[in-house]
Amino acid sequence: MYNDKVMDHFFNPRNVGEMENPDGVGQVGNPICGDVMRVQIRVKDNRIEDVKFKTFGCGAAIATSSMVTELVKGLTLDEAMEVSNKTVAEALGGLPPQKMHCSNLAADALHEAIKDYRSKAAAAR
Amino acid sequence: MTSEYMSPARKVYLDHSSTTPVRAEVLSVMMPFFAQAFGNASSIHRWGREARVGVETAREKVAYLLGAEPSEIVFTSGGTEADNLALRSTAHLLRSKGNHIITTAVEHHAVLHTCQVLEKEGYEVTYLPVDKYGMVSVESVREAIRPETILISVMHGQNEVGTIQPIEEIGLLAKEKGILLHTDAVQSAGKIPTKVRDMNVDLMTISSHKMYGPKGIGALYVRKGIRIAPQITGGAHERGRRAGTENVAGIVGFGEACYLAERELEAEGKRLTTLRDKLINGILEKIPDTVLNGHPTKRLPHNVNVSIKYVEGESVLLNLDRMGVGASSGSACTSGSLEPSHVLLAMGVPHEVAHGSIRMTLGRMNTEEDIDYVLEVLPPIVSRLREMSAFSASTDSEVCGGGHKNVQ
Fold first, then answer.
1. Are B404 and A28 in contact (CB < 8 Å)?
2. Cβ neighbours of residue B36 closer than 8 Å, sequence gap 6 or more
3. Strand partners, B304
4. Level-2 CATH architecture, domain B24-261
């Protein structure tokens, strides 16, 4: 069902965990549909210096979470906002069709984290 | 893929409710019917007669398992076809008598989806609720009966959670009211006693590949005196109840599987119950925040179904598979839809807990060492996934309160 790259990210996920005092947090999904992803970011000079995730979900949910963290580390916030769910799925070499909608939300979680950071930063100004 | 994935320390198949391997004894009695005794069982010549003997001997063996007459057995392509035949035939033949069917919310899709089709044809269907164990109450059946009720269809052993329904009592009630009772006994036949006279049923579905017979063959028991309108029309096979040249080798294998199951029923049932309880208790003891789904005792001897909170079923299955353990789940991800198991939801299990359900169904080959192995590999898998999970015991209130952004 899943290709080797997806399975690699599922069995050996990158950047799992939580950080203390993250600069931005984003969470998407819903326990009712079975996938919830939480992404935390640390921002320095408008770049994503560090990123962590925690995910409740299926193989695709965990693999896409891992992949998005790998893709955006070191990018500017604007560049990271350009990374879409589609980008993540492509970077994984594709996902089974039934997983494209329900379990491919990791980029959305990241975007929420960036928006969270930006709104906090705007409020602090 | 890592070498560990390719060759796990042990291989443990725990998905016998999905399907079972064909037993060697079954395969050996089937073999002559492919190339030697290949005749059409309807033919008059020696080749045909040979095949006919195979079919009729097998029919006696299937009847033996059910305590039925051979003439009461109609061979079909499997459980799904037998369920379809029972429901559609009864509905159509008794249309002048009434249009109401009673079934349950936890039936197999072969019954549920057929009922939905019948609803579109103008039939009314009552889907009875179940309690937290997945059990239907006889009283709820009684209350649902109307003057126009023509059929009650309640499964015997529930395929996901293993709960055994009170068919005998429902049968007495159906008899008293003069309503036909069908039961889907695909999961229970060959595992626990399924004598049709004791169960007071009129129609019963069974399937070969759930009891170490080949796939593509099943049967509908039809009590003597009940008419059947064939849903597959053609020749006069199966006494005009199901057209199509008999799957002779499949029927012969099915018969042998039934015979062996009946002979070993009691001993194997006891052995499986011991293994089942060891696995259930081991999981509940070793892994915190786990719950048993289904009835603790009125349960198929080979069924284990647990919900592991804060993790999702498919993730657990993929990890178990890597360790050589084959299981299944009621999570949405494994059903190909967004909804988790309709059975667990009907039992009142919350969505997020249903997503973490794991079904392990035992069989003949499983040993105590297999159970020890599962109890060794499962806890670390769960710990690892929980460390990764967005949920934990501390987020329970958050989960229940909702409030997450749903970007579906």
1. yes
2. none
3. B360
4. 3-Layer(aba) Sandwich (3.40)
The domain locations on chain A are 4-124
Our CA angle for B293, B296, B299, nearest 5°, is 90
pLDDT tens for each residue of chain B, 408 residues long: 444 456 888 999 999 999 999 999 999 999 999 999 999 999 999 999 999 999 999 999 999 999 999 999 999 999 999 999 999 999 999 999 999 999 999 999 999 999 999 999 999 999 999 999 999 999 999 999 999 999 999 999 999 999 999 999 999 999 999 999 999 999 999 999 999 999 999 999 999 999 999 999 999 999 999 999 999 999 999 999 999 999 999 999 999 999 999 999 999 999 999 999 999 999 999 999 999 999 999 999 999 999 999 999 999 999 999 999 999 998 766 656 667 899 999 999 999 899 999 999 999 999 999 999 999 999 999 999 999 999 888 776 454 333 333 333
Q: How many angstroms separate the CA atoms of B394 and B305, rounded?
A: 25
Known active-site residue A58: no
Q: Are B83 and B108 in contact (CB under 8 A)?
A: yes
Q: Where are the domains of chain B?
A: 10-20+265-388, 24-261
User: Does the beta carbon of B331 lie under 8 angstroms from any beta carbon of chain A?
Assistant: yes
> Chain A: residue nearest B339 by CA?
A33
The answer to whether B351 contacts A57, with C-beta atoms less than 8 Å apart, is no
**A69 CB within 8 Å of a chain B CB:** no
What fold characterizes domain B10-20+265-388? Aspartate Aminotransferase, domain 1 (3.90.1150)
Scanning B208-247, the segments in alpha helix (DSSP H) are 237-240
Q: What is the ipTM of this complex?
A: 0.94
Instruction: Check CB contact under 8 Å for B312 and A35.
Output: yes
Distance CA A12, CA A106 (A): 17
Q: Is B340 in Cβ contact with A57 (below 8 Å)? A: no
Instruction: Fill in the DSSP letter of residue B165.
Output: P
Displacement of CA B350 from its chain's centroid (Å): 23
Query: Class for domain A4-124, per CATH?
Result: alpha beta
Q: Which helix (H) or strand (E) holds B34?
A: helix B32-35
Quote the CA–CA distance of B234 and B294 in Å, as a whole number. 42
* From B115, B258, B333, B400, the catalytic residue: B333
Which H/E stretch holds residue B303?
Answer: strand B303-308
- Closest-CA distance of chain B to residue A44, Å: 25
First to last CA, chain A: 49
Structure tokens at B209: 């590949």
A40 DSSP 8-state letter: E
Nearest CA in chain B to A101: B408
